[in-house]
Prior knowledge:
Elements: E1 35-36, E2 43-47, E3 66-72, E4 77-86, E5 91-97, E6 108-113, E7 117-123, E8 128-135, E9 141-148
Parallel strand pairs: 1-3
Antiparallel strand pairs: 2-9, 3-8, 4-7, 4-9, 5-6, 5-8
Amino acid sequence: xxxxxxxxxxxxxxxxxxxxxxxxxxxxxxxxxxxxxxxxxxxxxxxxxxxxxxxxxxxxxxxxxxxxxxxxxxxxxxxxxxxxxxxxxxxxxxxxxxxxxxxxxxxxxxxxxxxxxxxxxxxxxxxxxxxxxxxxxxxxxxxxxxxxxxxxxxxxxxxxxxxxxxxxxxxxxxx
Length: 175
């Protein structure tokens, strides 16, 4: 919309006026650019500037930019958030089921991260999740991370006669 600004002097003598129009800073909605993630594929997130949200349940305020990713779990169990590089600035990582909608509420804290780290969190196979990165600062931040999936369980329905299966829990032993 185009607007006209009228400057109308209150008298007939010569005058001058200096003014400017200050426009509000528009902070982008992080739900408009959701990036898909795959198991074991690293992604570098670059964050800078103000954000819209601050879930607060990782223990800290997050006034910086947010980025939302989508991830569909293919296996039920402990998935690993593997942050491999940072520029030593804190970013809070969260997740929630995508069925709850992309919004500022309902996030579960994974961890408050400023260094390389591996953190486990449980997901259910077939469920699509949102992964939220929310910066604790508005200065330039860079984190490289990935979601590592649990191993697929072997089919134990045709085990050798000398093997006895006592439960159906699949875990990696020694690894």
